[in-house]
Amino acid sequence: MGLRGPKPVSPLKRAWKWVHCTDTCWLWFGCKAYNGYGWIGVSNDKHIHVHRLFYTSYIGPIPKGLEIDHICRRRNCVNPDHLRAVTHAENMKNLKLLCAHGHEYSYTKKTERAYERICRTCNNRRQRQYKRRQHEQRATSQQS
After folding, report:
1. Which domains, ranges and CATH numbers included, belong to the chain?
2. In the chain, how long is the greatest CA-to-CA distance?
């Protein structure tokens, strides 16, 4: 008697269905952890980060004591050409120092799950926009 159901599919083969290849990056659009890194189940009770799966599948085992760094700075990129094994200290040196608009991060605040770097310039702009919208909504509701 044989096993019932479909044959098991390797995690790498399953992962490819959630990857969108652009001109440069291979972007993961499957499940992501709160920190932005993609993950996939490899057994009933074990999950791994997808960028580590692609690194080990296409480059080789991750050397002991090293972690995987995204050269392109995109946590959901799984392109092996954009991944390299580095020490933790080297990985921390490569942290993003500027926000998406080119301002320096001003401070770090503790959120529910992690520490979040905040750009004071962008945060102030968002607050002004929010207050302006609130003011406009109150003005239109009072006119009605």
Report:
1. 1-95 (3.90.75.20), 96-144 (no CATH)
2. 77
